[in-house]
Amino acid sequence: MLLELEGIQKRFGGVVALRRGDLRAEAGEVHLLLGENGAGKSTLMKIVAGMVQPDGGVIRWRGQPVSFRAPAEAAAHGIAMVHQESLLAPHLTVAENIFLGREDRLPFGWVNRRRMMERAARLIEEHHFPLQADWRVERLSPAGKQLVEICRAIYHGSSLLIFDEPTSSLSEAETQEVFRIVRTLRERHMGVIYITHRLEELRAVGDRVTILRDGETVHSGPLAGLSTEEIIRHMVGRELEAIYHRECLPPGEELLRVEGLSRRGVLHDIRFTLRAREIVGLAGLVGAGRTELCRALFGLDPVDGGRVFVAGKEVHIRNPRQAVAAGLALIPEDRQRNGLAVLLPIGHNLTHARLKAVSPHGIIDHAAERRTATEFIERLRIRAESWRQLAGKLSGGNQQKVVVGKWLFSQARVFLFDEPTRGIDVAAKAEVFHIMDELARSGAAILMVSSELPELLQVADRILVMRQGRLVVELPRGATQEEVMRHAMLEREAGVRELGS
């Protein structure tokens, strides 16, 4: 037994990330760690790697209680983590990254580069990695960068290696290479903890499995004999909470049509329509391409091909200004960084997407700005001291209302909501859903991205499911969490209807 976790707890402010995390990992096995977005998987492993400090619970390493206050302490015990996003120094070579912080030295402190290159080359050859010691890391593929991190972990004597979504941005060939490496590490009697959302990967590498749901371990045991349906049931088994109930409206005219939208390596032949009075949900796992689709539609990211029609007219959107002119609005996932000017007053935030309406002669009419801001503060029930209050001083829910109000004032008709309820409380969520319902009733079309399946299932008229940059299925209202998760996680399954086919 290498690692034992009992009752690990972690809270970030008012958000409980882990209520009770339990896990036991042995040498010579690949231990799968599964769960929905936000279940607590990465937080639990960051605690093991010394990146985050727990609020409670016990960590035992080789039978002895331990507490890691920094990644260096975890590494000294033999624990390493290969992150989803590379933490390497891109301007250095493969060898320099492997030995970073533990360089071979010559007299007077000079780095012995020749010896480092030779030792790195032997390590790479021993494990049959497709690398060269003198390659610069910045030129490597995502898979190549992961191999460098693995080399570093092996060189430093790690006996437990944690992989956090290692194949989320890899090609099929690169994914198979990662599988080969994981199996090799197991044969060398290392312990591996492997976090993934992709159910088709489980049988290729896994021995045992631990499943988290809402910050708690709900299942742990051998993978053999555990069906895919049982895994999904453990992951999404909570009762649906009636946050908000919405009545379906008959759809109106087509307001948005997307045909063959593509961006190399990110989006693949995206096709769908939005109609007036509709709220269409967009589901998928982290890395599926949901946010990237919204960004592409709004002109934030370039596309390689495809056509977009707004109210029956083809539009060519290459930047947000053109998107706004076409009648599109984006309520981004990170509202503080991308949706608001947090150091400016509420009034400025509500009016700057259509500034000409309050500055007819090129100079802002502050009386008009005040009237507009006051109207939207009352209409959206924004809790603020006055229209002059800085947007950054509002609560999360009220900040979200300001972002929505900005686009209402811009007279947008197609709204792209990216994780609209992230980081806000239940009462604020209900108000955001009420606003979305009012938008739909007024004739707008809404695309709603959400990782909260219970909310999506309650609010959306139909659900589009994305996986690896593709829209793989459209599900009607009344679909279950299990159906959505199955389509989002499985590469191919009988009965999945490909959009556009």
Topology:
Elements: E1 3-12, E2 15-25, E3 30-34, H1 41-48, E4 56-61, E5 64-66, H2 71-77, E6 79-82, H3 94-98, H4 113-126, H5 142-155, E7 160-164, H6 172-187, E8 191-195, H7 199-205, E9 208-213, E10 216-222, H8 228-235, E11 254-263, E12 267-275, E13 279-283, H9 290-297, E14 305-310, E15 313-315, H10 320-326, E16 328-331, H11 335-339, H12 346-351, H13 366-379, H14 396-409, E17 414-418, H15 426-441, E18 445-449, H16 453-459, E19 462-467, E20 470-476, H17 481-489
Parallel strand pairs: 3-8, 3-9, 6-7, 7-8, 13-18, 13-19, 16-17, 17-18
Antiparallel strand pairs: 1-2, 1-4, 4-5, 9-10, 11-12, 11-14, 14-15, 19-20
Helix pairs in contact: 14-15
List keywords for this structure.
501 residues, alpha/beta, Rossmann fold, 2 domains, 6-stranded mixed beta sheet, disordered C terminus
Quick take:
Helices cover 33% and strands 24% of the residues.
The unreliable regions are 238-243, 492-501
CATH fold type of the largest domain = Rossmann fold
Q: In the residues, how many domains can be counted?
A: 2
* CA radius of gyration: 25 Å
**The CATH architecture of the largest domain:** 3-Layer(aba) Sandwich
The global form is: globular
Strand order of the largest sheet: 6-7-8-3-9-10
CATH superfamily of the largest domain: P-loop containing nucleotide triphosphate hydrolases
Report, as a whole number of angstroms, the end-to-end distance.
Answer: 50 Å
Query: How many H/I helical runs?
Result: 17
Average pLDDT:
83
Count the E strands. 20
